[in-house]
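thread: overnight batch results

M.L. [08:02]
morning all. the overnight job finished for the chain we discussed friday. pasting input first so we're all looking at the same thing
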Amino acid sequence: MSNGQVPERESFTTTLGVLAATLGSAVGLGNIWKFPSMTGQNGGAAFVFVYLICVAVIGIPLMISEFIIGRRANANNVGAFEKLAPATPWYLTGVAGVAAAFLIMFFYTDVAGWVYSYAFKGLTGGLTHASSTQTADIFSKYTGSVVGPLAWQWIVLVVISVVIIAGVTKGIERMTKTLLPVLFVLLLLCDVRALTLPGAMAGVEYLFKPDFAKITAPVILAALGLAFFKLSVGMGAMTTYGSYMGKKVNIPSNAIKVALADTLVSLLAGLAIFPAVFAFGFKPDAGPSLLFITIPAVFQTMPFGQVFMTMFFLLAAIAATGAMISLLEVPVAYFTEEKHWSRPTATIFSAGVMGVVGSLATLSTSTLSKTLVFGKTFFDLFDFASSNILLPIGGILICLFVGWKLGPVAAVDEASNGGTLRNATSLKVLIILIRYVAPIAILLVLLNGLGIVKI
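M.L. [08:03]
and the structure it wrote out:
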């Protein structure tokens, strides 16, 4: 600023704004894409049952830990650790979070571009009357091209950059408060249509009637990994959003609400998908192709399928946008506070890096499909490095920091709003989970992801 003064740090202005922003971060393509595909591949309701337990004992404690760090320090992901543990290497935990945000955005913006493109195809009739074979060909032709995927990736980056430049209150808070109700309405409309199809109850039973014999060690590990990654923890997003929370915000309550609402969105997405999949004889274990190949074909076979397919991809685009906003905010907050860049400069630089390096991931299905690094395409490399290395390491360090370095006294003080909240008993359980249970569970995810331990 010209007068040499540091601008006042922004924050969320309302309790609803806090909930909307943090929920917008947690809800993403993981809800609309990964949750249904993993549920289909791991036995349906039995997987959902294990997943819910993992959310309770791993996801929520880690989210609360990030909120505690962010609000207590009132600083970005790197500055928070420097402030709470000065002159120690703990700041590297924050650096890992910023790096993870970049790595995730390198490939996430590519997939989000696919979703944006399919929403556009739905609006313009580009998928009209397409069979499952035709949708597979359409998807293969699209991802195998160059101009289209790159253009949509940059469109995605422009959209979220506009929101970030507008600021925390006028950008992030306002956008998430607007988008989330739209997402829920679109989901409910898709659910109503799917549930009224003949044979839809088979899909409902698949999602909600567990066969506990299907619970195996790999299923438990898969549910644990999904619960950890899908809540946007371990990457600095929740620490950054926690720093924008007022001192009167009930951190544990907000984390529980976010986890419950996030799970509700996942289940609603499942209700939009599995009844329709079973009604028309498709396979529930199609995996990642479920979203871009199976779903278009399924919706095309039902009355008004074009309308509902378009709504489905619009809600997927909304979910992806909320998650990407929080991911872009992580480095932007770092650059504005630690390097004293203006918000527009930090946003344009971060988005530019994501677009340039992310193009390598986008081209991994076309011109760079045979270019391998450590035996992986750039898309798979960015995914592996973030999901299997940086996020688990960050999650473990966050738990150890709150549980041991910051300590139970300070953690309880922050989570109880200075003792004004009557949650002493639940916080005792929380501290046990943060200090012992969560780090061990996330360590299993890390070792399994690296192929060191196979269960």
